[in-house]
Amino acid sequence: MKSNFFEVLRPGINSTFQDFGRENFYHIGLPFSGAMDNRNYLLSNTLVNNKYEAAIEFAYQGPLLKFHGKSTVIAVTGDVNFSITKKNKKLINGECYKNYILENEDELDIISTNKSVYGYLSVSGGFVLEKILNSYSTFSRAKVGPFKGEKLFVNQKILIKQTSDFKTQKKIKYINTKIEYIRIIKATNFDFFSKKAVENFLNKEFIVTKLTDRMGMRIKGPIIENIKEKNIRSEGIVKGTIQIPPDGDPIIMLSDHGTIGGYPKIGVVISADYDKLVQLVPNTKIKFKLVNLPEAEKIYEIYRLETDNLINQIK
Amino acid sequence: MIKNILNLGDSSIYYDFGDEINKETNKKVISFFNSLKKANLEEIINLTPSYNKLIVSFDLKKTNFIELKKKIEDIKTFNIDEQKNKKIKIPICCDEEFFLDKERLIKKLKLNVEEILEKYLNKSYFCYMTGFVAGMPFLGDISKELRTDRLKTPRVKVPKGSVGITEQFSNIYTFESPGGWNIIGKTPCKIFNSNNKVNPVLINPGDNVHFYSISKNEFLKLNEK
Questions:
Q1: Which residues of A touch B170 (CB under 8 A)?
Q2: Are B194 and A268 in contact (CB < 8 Å)?
Q3: Cα–Cα distance between A222 and A210 in angstroms, integer?
Q4: What is the least distance, in Å, from the CA of B48 to any CA of chain A?
Q5: Is pLDDT above 90 for A58?
Q6: What are the φ and ψ backbone dihedral angles of B77, each rounded to 5 degrees?
Q7: A244 touches A193 (CB < 8 A)
């Protein structure tokens, strides 16, 4: 039997394979990587009856893919504009959070994300990929990941695993709500900054700049004045860490961040708000809100329950 | 041994080994890192040792700060000196073409090229940590006479394989990346290799590195491989 596959007609701007992320390589300088918006990654997989398969993550413009084979089931999540052109030229406007059957020579056009950055495409059974260092995630800067760590490219052939005939229609109602403020916990150098700087940081608005990618997000607002030391000895950082370089403009470390850094840290974004943070497009206004560790843990528990409930609704 | 334990965000523990940066402190960090690695706790998803800190990232679905901190207290730490750390020889070519900051270093250090290279090559270096970009080793300590600050304006692109020095440390740019270290040469050695499934880096924290000089011809030959 011939295997099912996608032919990449247009790769999109920043389309990569991602899964949960790559564990236990920080100590050699490899970031965690993985899907930026973990909940949407999980939902796309669940809608096609997968568990932990790799999905295609895209940012802004997504890929145009032609399906070859008998049939397969796909789902797209996020806030995404997409369409399916059947072989007979019939056009279907795609809805996110709903699965679709693709037949031979159907074209799936992921046109763009709306007012958000990332979206996810999953295919029933998953893609045929090689795990690199225990993960399907792509870290393109060090060329680590399937297809030699490259982003999607024109004429690429992506094989799809053969599965039993899963054809059940699945759908959920889910709206990607916007977040009003990003909740943070104080980080280890919180007291390096002047009282005024801290006040500004917690009360004033910041704007997401264009200098934002999978590595980090630069934001602009009032200058955060450091009254102690502008540089510290390089040490480990984690996803969500907010560093303040000497120029006073905060940088938030995202999934592909450098594993160590030498700028003082004012705060760390709580785990529960990470999915929403990464979806903020340039020019979005954001505000920070301070919470303590027990609060952050409670909020995460709620985030987790919500995610589980969504998954159970699909199943 | 550990001076302070804090949380970094809601899913990491920050172990502070004190302000002093020296081999002794770093050996304690690496011993602790190796002990935790060996303990192989399923809640831990990353360990990041640096000069004087160790960060333990964990899965918030499985545990939390207080619980894991307690669990780690019971882990027996073994000493790094009891372990076998690798001794690694790395070829370096300091031909003019690769010695990008020759003039700057001659001026800053008030030494000539021969003196700089003699002092640099005549020593073996301890790997304090690996990271920032994949596989980049932070090696020390370099001779006191070679110590200087980083470039005022960092280079936008430092070529892959470049060997740099700044303050008491030396490093190797495993990928082309921005950087402000003083470049004294280039190695043809592949320090990071993602095809190696077990350990893609050549130099790990705790290893000892010795550089040996090669000619440009030898460099070109090795670089082809």
A1: none
A2: no
A3: 17
A4: 5
A5: yes
A6: -95, 130
A7: yes
Q: Count how many pairs of residues, chain A against chain B, have C-beta atoms within 8 Å.
A: 144
Q: What is the mean pLDDT of chain B?
A: 92
pLDDT tens, residue by residue, B20-75: 888 899 999 999 999 999 999 999 999 999 999 999 999 999 999 999 999 999 99
pLDDT tens digits, A185-217: 999 999 999 999 999 999 999 999 999 999 999
Tens digit of pLDDT for each residue in B134-163? 999 999 999 999 999 888 787 888 999 999
Chain B residues closer than 8 Å to A300 by CB: 10, 60
Cross-chain Cβ contact B132/A28 below 8 Å: no
CB contact under 8 A, A233 and B21: yes
Cα→Cα distances B147→A186, A220, B107, B111, B129, Å:
35, 35, 12, 12, 19
Q: How many CB atoms lie within 10 A of CB A94?
A: 18
Angle between helices B113-121 and B102-109 (to 10 degrees): 90
How close A133 gets to chain B, by Cα (Å)?
6
A22, A27, A274, A277, best to mutate vs chain B, most B CBs in 10 Å: A27
Contacts of B110 (CB under 8 A, 6+ apart): none
pTM of the model: 0.92
pLDDT at B154: 79
What is the nearest CA distance from A47 to chain B, expressed in angstroms?
22
Q: Vertex B110, ends B105 and B114: CA angle to 5°?
A: 70
Cβ-Cβ contacts under 8 Å, A32 against chain B: 45-46, 57
Q: Are A275 and A181 in contact (CB under 8 A)?
A: no
Instruction: Say what the pLDDT of residue B138 is.
Output: 95
Is the per-residue pLDDT at A164 higher than 70? no
Task: Please write down the HEC assignment for all residues of B168-202.
Answer: CEEEECCCCEEECCEEEEECCCCCECCCCCCCCEC
**Which of A141, A235, A247, A299 is the best mutation test for B, with the most CBs of B within 10 A?**
A235
Contacts 24+ apart (CB under 8 A), B144-147: B145/B109, B145/B111, B145/B119, B146/B105, B146/B109, B146/B111, B146/B116, B146/B119, B146/B120
For B205, the closest of A27, A235, A304 (CB atoms) is A27
Q: Is the peptide bond before B74 cis (omega within 30 degrees of 0)?
A: no
- Contact (CB<8Å) A234/B138: yes
What is the phi/psi pair of residue B105, to 5°? -70, -40
What are the E-state strand segments in B59-174?
A: 87-92, 124-130, 137-140, 155-158, 162-166, 169-172
CA A66 to chain CA centroid, nearest Å? 24
A246 shares contact with chain B (CB less than 8 Å): no
Contact of B8 with A187, CB cutoff 8 Å: yes
